[in-house]
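Known limitations

Files may contain more than one protein. Parsers should not assume a single record per file. Below, a two-record file is shown to illustrate correct handling: read the sequence, read the token line, then continue until end of file.
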Amino acid sequence: MNKNSRGTYAAAPVGAFYEGRDAFMRAALESVSERFGLDAASFYEFDEKPGLLRLRLRYAAGVSFEHEEDLRPAPGSSVSRALDTLEPVTAKSPGGSYLYSPFRFDYCDPAGGHGVVPCFGVVRLERGPRKRGFSAAEAAKADGYLKSFLRDYYKAEFFSLNRKYDKNVAAITELTEVFATALRVRDSFKHILAGIQTYFGFDRVRLYLIDEKNRKLKGELSADIRGQIKSISYEEIPLEPGAHRFADIVLGRSSGAFMERYKDCVLYMPLSVQGVTIGLLIVDNLLSQQRIEPQELAMLKSFGGQIALAVDNSRLFDKVEELSLYDELTKLPLRRYFNQRFQEEFYRAERFKQPLALIWADVDYFKEVNDTYGHQIGDKVLKEAGRVILSNLRKIDFPCRYGGDEIIILLPQASGEEARRLAQRLSTELAELRIPVPFSKAKELRVTLSIGISTFPQDASTMDALLEKADDALYWVKSHGRARIALYSDVAEERKKAETPGGTNDAPPK
């Protein structure tokens, strides 16, 4: 508090309240020293466990400074009486006159990690041996002055805590909503990083995830203060000691001098779920060089578990979605996935005037295989068929387990003859396989395919028509002995010949 022109005492500067307890106590020591003509003033905090008074701050000769000194109050001493009664106590010695003003107040932990922390101790006011001592009236006045100062501090801390609480509630509400939403959207990582960057205002937020299979730390996304979100998938760091400081941090090793140099404006936060590290979140103010406040660090760390869980759930969600689109047995996409890709490829073929071929295959006598040898052997047949198909396709081809033993293969930019050559390769390779059946007379099972093929635009101009023509060609094969390949165009030609006088419909397609 500072004396104003009317002789009353104004509150201490508001700024001092918000710089933390030590800054406030510096202001208190300076103010009481000037007001009461002291030579020095010291702030002691009582550590109850060892029973020591620990000197934290001292003001003397116009200078505030931190000081370390531990005192053990002797029973019955002036300082001991002040602590016991919480009343001011004066003392005099050859070294000068002293006033012990006890205090007890709460303050907000500046690191944000312990909430409200109690503070108990004494302020020792000192005058040299040549100066007058403290009268009872002056002691009461000085003690009241300090207590008034501390009440103002407590009030300021109360409002500070209220603001901090409101800010934390807002953060919890907003970020929890972001994380919850992230579980339901495909671009969840963008939502998570954008939420962190928007709320805290960091220069940059980056996310890296661990690829356990390849033992790498892979970059995902980076969000900056301009609101731009960019992919950093080109960043791949071997998950080995010494390979990079990011890898060392994830592996729990020291990361060297860089972290120490920029510790005030960079935070590296490993993301863990149930004790397993899944990635690394990095926030920084390297561009602005603004210090990341302890409260921000504490808040972000408190969200660490939620962030990690949101990231992990998003990955699991994508994995589940991916698995729901594929047949577990054959590893081929399922029908609903095929329908989506079929629309895309057909649209592309129409727009760019490109050919599109469709293979519809059926495992011959599959029902009889299941009925005779059981579903375990039938599953082996389908599994081998899926393996053979996947090993023979181009990257742009798209196979599908359409239902039961029916398999459809979409061949973008392929003609009927190109589709026939692929179908022949698949048939030959599968026919060469022998499925072991130990309990049967033959001890093994041979597998053949019946295949029908249609093409766009030669055979059909719509998706439904293309499927219908391929199914029609397949039906022709199955009704003419199976284990064959037929193009719809050849089937249509044969039927046309059969309709003419003297024609026959027994000749197989090419």
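...continuing to the second record:
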Amino acid sequence: MVSYLKIENNKLVESNLEESKVIIYKKPDRDEMNYLVGAYGMDEHNVISSIDPDELGRIEFEEDHIMFLLKRPKDYSNEDNLLFKVTSVGVFIFKDKMIIIMPEDIQIFEGRQSFKLNSLLDVLLKLLFGTISHFLGHLKVINMISDSLEQKINTSMENKFLINMFTLEKSLVYFLNGINSNSVLFEKMKAAAARIGFTPDNLSLLDDIIIENTQCYKLAEIYANVLSGITAARAAIVSNNLNVLMKTLNIITISIMVPTFVVSVFSMNVGIPMQDKPFAFWVIMGLSAVSIILTSIFWKLKRW
């Protein structure tokens, strides 16, 4: 799917192919990628890298355009089973046109609604801000889910919730890698500011972006460390809950076995005392009750 946008009144608005300044390719097929390579002279590897989630963020200077490869969170779906993944977005800036290639249909221009757009480089910087905003939004969701799982694990002895915690921890590893990859890209952009064509205002915004990304990385790192500690603690809690349950079951089992033993002795097919007495039944039941009381006292003295 292809979208066409243009800059109008400091905003991006929908346009047609002739007037468009920003062209967005969402989930491009093989024919569309071949068209981009042939019509715009893009490197085929760079085009493919734009939809490859395993590629690292980078910047490449070509003869007539600059290629930026960003990392951003993949939109979550129920099929992911609490695994938040990171994907790639390729941005190709020509003299009077920007082409964006991404592997899914997502909103890429997020955050800072007052961001004014006057050039394609402004659009690029807004895209960078949107990427950081997207990471922060997903981190908040991960934190909310982990809080919910903590409460469930405290009273559960199943592995289900613990596995979910491990999955979230794995997601944060992906996030840390993606945010760090963007950090390297931003520093390279700052070092090559003159070659890219950044104005002093653009450089000021880029500095803000670097600070925001650093804070985002620190937040993800804190969440990862906290979740790692919580996961280890909750694993111990699940094990302890199981031990408590087994102890309780053993106490109940032994408590039942003692009066059962008393009754079983008087049920043997041999001569026993009081077998002809009418009150023998109540004697046996009394002995069973006494055995239960003595067993309970024993457990209490042992503080079990």
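Parsers that stop after the first record will miss the second one. For reference, the second record is described as follows. The chain has a mean pLDDT of 83.
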